[in-house]
Amino acid sequence: MTEPLAVQPVRAGADRRAFVALPYRLHAGDPCWGPMLRRDAAALIDPRRNPFYEHADQELFLARRGRAVVGRVAAIVNRRHNEIHADRVGFFGFFECERDPEAATGLLAAVEGWLRDRGCDAMRGPVNPSMNDEAGLLVEGFETPAVLMMPHNPPHYADLLEAHGLRRVRDLYAYQTWEHGVPPRLIEGARRVQQRYGVRVRSMDLRRFAAEVENIKRLYNAAWERNWGFVPFTDREMDHLAKQLRPIVDPALALFAEVDGQPVGVAVALPDFNVALRKNPSGRLFPGVLKVLWAARRIDRVRVIILGALPEWHRRGVDALLYARIWENGRARGVRWGEAGWVLEDNHPMRNALVRMGFEVYKTYRVYEKRVG
User: Fold this and answer.
1) DSSP labels for 206-224?
2) Are 98 and 47 spatial neighbours (Cβ–Cβ below 8 Å)?
3) How far apart are the first and last CA of the chain?
4) How far apart are CA 220 and CA 224, in angstroms?
5) Under DSSP, is residue 193 helix (H, G, I), strand (E, B) or coil?
6) Is 258 left (phi over 0), alpha (psi -120 to 50) or beta?
7) Which CA distances in Å does 27 have to 97, 98, 147, 248, 345?
8) Using one digit for the tens of pLDDT, what is the confidence trace for 133-156?
């Protein structure tokens, strides 16, 4: 006989540890899942360690059958999002569930109630915990490995969400390119951009890391401010992320486009550290981290996590110039494959630019929404 279902908020430390541990059990044996270190997974949901929660509230829920945890979810109110977009959207994230429709419905209903009690009229997600982190549910591309800071889930998760009345609000696309190299027309276009506009490309200076992060923050927030659902990084959020990523930043793959000494564009490609993390499927620090460090020496994949220019420099080829230089530098370092993304479905200028650069869509992530007011 099936044990009765109980959905309850996380309170004790043991509950929090169970919340973190669940995906390592559910995705055990899935070669495409990217198991981050449990220490990092715990920090992501911890208001004491993640500055996102300085402007957001969160409630974590667990679904149990008897003593067994069968699902989890987070309810999130991002106050900064609602101030910027003048709406009352709440979010859900960190959704994981067995193939158990009752458990999924119980979890999502708990989120609905929590958000409604806080004045929200819609629930949107999944985001882990925001659109600046892992965003969307994988709906196409299950057969290929997830790259660094991108989500992965089994196909049945979409069925669980849609059975609860959640519907697509936006799709996000991830693009890939292979080692065929930079198209010759792109190289020629990049040369013309440099000559016509006097654009200079330089690598990030790690000796001035704090100042370089300030440049990235300014460019990123300006270049993406018109995107659907975008919320600019706060200073503390960007500094926190930069501190986490600094150990894997390669200056040759973190580039600025400058005109008269002023940055007008930025591109950052990071080694796909998931290649190494998969050597430690348990996510435990010891002794697994030794396997991770050994595997990290032979990563030949990258994710282009940032590629953009100031609005006044759009459609002038700055993005193509930066990409051409990143791919040339990457190939010199043994990079044979790259992902760019994610990109909103209605961001046609960027999508068209990526196709011209030789990329193709290979994964689709979906953001869902449901009215709760």
Assistant:
1) GGGHHHHHHHHHHHHHHHS
2) no
3) 36
4) 6
5) helix
6) beta
7) 10, 10, 15, 25, 28
8) 999 999 999 999 999 999 999 999
Cα–Cα distance measured from residue 166 to residue 175, given in angstroms and rounded to the nearest whole number: 26
Percent of the chain scoring above 70 in pLDDT: 99
Assign residue 368 a region (left: φ > 0; alpha: ψ between -120 and 50; beta: otherwise): beta
Helix (H) or strand (E) holding 357: none
Residue type, 256: F
Q: How far apart are CA 358 and CA 324, in angstroms?
A: 11
pTM of the full structure: 0.95
Give the C-alpha separation, 106 to 266, whole Å: 43
If residue 182 lies in a helix (H) or strand (E), which one and from where to where?
A: none
Helices assigned H by DSSP within the chain: 13-26, 38-44, 79-85, 101-117, 156-163, 184-197, 209-223, 235-245, 274-277, 288-295, 318-332, 348-356
The model's pLDDT over 169-181, given as tens digits with 9 standing for 90+, comes to 999 999 999 866 6
Domains of the chain, CATH where assigned: 5-133 (3.40.630.30), 177-371 (3.40.630.30)
Q: How far apart are CA 227 and CA 233, in angstroms?
A: 14
Q: Which two tokens stand for residue 189?
A: 């276009």
Q: Which two tokens stand for residue 113?
A: 């109630």
Token reading at 338? 């790259």
Beta bridge partners of residue 65, listed in sequence order: 5, 68
Q: Quickly tell me which residue has 């300085």 as its tokens.
A: 54
Torsion angle of the four alpha carbons 320, 325, 331, 335, in this order, in degrees rounded to the nearest 10 = -70
Paired with 268 in beta bridges are 254, 306
